[in-house]
Records
---
Amino acid sequence: MTNHRNIIYENYHSKFNSRIANVTQNDLDSLYRHYDEKILPSLKLFRKNSSILELGCGPGYLLDYLKQKGYVNVKGIDISEEQIEIAQSKGHNVSVGDVFVYLKNSTEKFDVIFAFDLLEHFTKDELLELTELVHYSLREEGLFLIRTPNGQGIFAGQIIYGDLTHQTILNPNSLTQLLAINGFKEIKFIENSPVGKNLFGILRLFLWKSLKLFLNFMKIIESGGKQDIWTHDFFCIAKK
């Protein structure tokens, strides 16, 4: 049977990403404001020459951000040749490859490993293997930084069924199980909520907090409890 991943990833950018995401500079500015608030505080714990790897780097948006912040020892890997060509055109140290093969064959230890919008593309069995490989590939006290769709988000269905390559959708509880099984000690979750860096962001953040109060009121009625993360995706920071 033909592997659907091979078919889809062969032209993933030209036939899918580029059709649904015409990324503008405003989009990138908004994305980087989120990175400043959500992940930069954790990165500041590391020197600028710390060894950083991004799994599933795509066209290099996160690599662009890390370069802007002065991190000089950064590399990426992605299975899509089209996206790697874009990242290479911007001068990034990237290569085409399967993340499992790369981690199994690499002898390098990293201070930080990123997996943004990646975990949802694997089965549960594959995720168990991947997190084990990531744990092995990190130095002691190293960080595994994740962004993944939220299975308990308001519009989870749009994310789950919005890409044929999506296999497993996690929430903070199931991701905690996955990471703890493979030896990660400190696991923190961050909601990917609006960032109040300008007037529009402040308004969105206020409205989001108000909506969360209503959502948790309904959840308390239904189950007697509430949840902290409702956004369509979330960040996770796990320490080895």
---
Amino acid sequence: MPPTGRGGRRNHLRRTKPILPSHNLVDPTTSEPPKPHLTARTLPPELLLQILYRTEVKALVRFKCVSRSWYALINHPMFVKKHLSVSTSNKSNSHVIVNANNAGGCGKSIVLLRVDKEPVRLLDIDTSAKDRDGYPRKINFVDFSKKMHVAGSVNGVVLVMHIDEMMGRFVALWNPGINQWKAVKLDDLGGDDIERSAFGLGYDEGNDDIKIVRVVTRSSCMNEFIAGFKWARVEIYSANRGCWKGVDHEGELLFWPRQYHCNFIVKGAPYFVGMDVMPDSAVAFQHEILARFDPCTGFYKKVEYPEHFREMSTWVQPFEYQDSVAVMVQSTPGLLDEPMIDLYVLDDDTASWTKMYAIGPFPYKEFHYPRQSFKTGEIVIEEQLHTRDLYLYDPEASYVSSLIGIDSLKPLWMQSYSHTESLVSVKGMELIGRENKNKKNKPKKINRMEVLSKEFESVLHV
């Protein structure tokens, strides 16, 4: 009988321990004990690493809270590099980061797109923000992002810039995957003589260094150009060294970029669309060209379109296609009943153009702009004149489809770049929302080698 008295029944129930199920019971149907479940503790380190290499960045950031050993592993440079390598080689994990004007003029957004998933809005930009004077020397991300634009993406790190209030003062490096950023102050290169700067992002593989390329040009007054092109120069910012360095081209840089940012990035090198400058000619600008800037040296290389692309009856639009420089050539609408678009790819070794695909014919006579390509080969094409609709075209299969979720987002597509989510953090990056905090209150940094387990250490070959 249960004990009587003060709280007898209740105390009796409280002292009674529940019967726990036994994991060693024999299954009556098979007469065999159940197989043990595999956990992170029972998986071999080699297999666990292979799983983590293929895990999304967002999940890995959460996994840092598992233990000090996991925190050390996920932050380890060799793990970060291997995870990036696996992500880059996985074509199905192809992302595009887009700077887009929202429909109806209701601001801008920075959006992450994939072929097979709904778009993800990374950041909403307040375009109605008033110009703000007297910025502090150190600024926070929220303040910087009010009017920013995407200007490149390399190894998961995105270059963002301003074209109005902060122009000539700051650019920034931002990794949206790990929620870190770094403001980069620009050097003063001549005050009133500088008309504008164009920025691009590159990757110096030999030094494992992310570089910012800055093309600085003088006043664009046409009278001065007719008299002779004055000057332009290049500066390179090294993320490893944290400083700018001028590039000596041994003479004038005869190139005028048309936009404030590079147009695309191929194999770590930024490409700018601009005008070829002829200083000794009565007409300063000759024709449109591509300019490639070496991310290691900053040296400039002119990439010419083939002669037959320069006809007035054709419209040439360069872009990046599967790690190569490509152009889409279209006849001027109205000249043909069913216009075609030809896709040419540049051979790096021979510097020759090869026709890869003929796209079309299209039933409507409009310009079509190649906005971006995915690693899987699909190309985002936008109608330019009327509807500005976006289509996803697979040139290999000659198949046109709509981009998943694009109707719900309704962007007016601006600049965009291929993007790979990564754990890469450059020197000086800070966690967004924790900038300018008192360093005395920061916890002591964890020594990765002290807490990295012996199993992970041996597998990583540390």
---
Amino acid sequence: MELSKKHHHVDKIFWSIALPGFGQILNGKIIKGFLFVFLEFLINVKSNFNQIILLSFHGKIEEAINITDYQWLMFYPCLYFYAMWDAWRDAGGGKGRFSSIPFVVTAYFVTVGCIYSPIFKVFSIKLGPVWLPILSVIPGLLVGYIIKKTLERFVK
């Protein structure tokens, strides 16, 4: 099997990481893709996400926290991880009943990271609304993968 066809679903997940909706558009799900793109832009603008990212990368965590609209930002992880899973599944990835579990659990962990980002500190340093959610991806994927494997083993 040709490498590009074998990893076709991986391409779609990377495009969804770049911007939710791109994977769907590449899968031929144009309306769904543009809906995800629209929702991403809406949440991005309403939560001030681009400015939050910029400030966080410049080390201005308190400023980022102060301009964050958490009511909107908390929608982002679910949209982001659902769009990734959906594009991956439609492209032929995600075989099995529990393929969505790592994505769901990671979205939950990232949302919780978002919620606690204004107060959570590591060595007296606030991580803010970008860094704590990003770091929450790692335990989210690990826990999600363990749950998925456990369910696959015990649920027939």
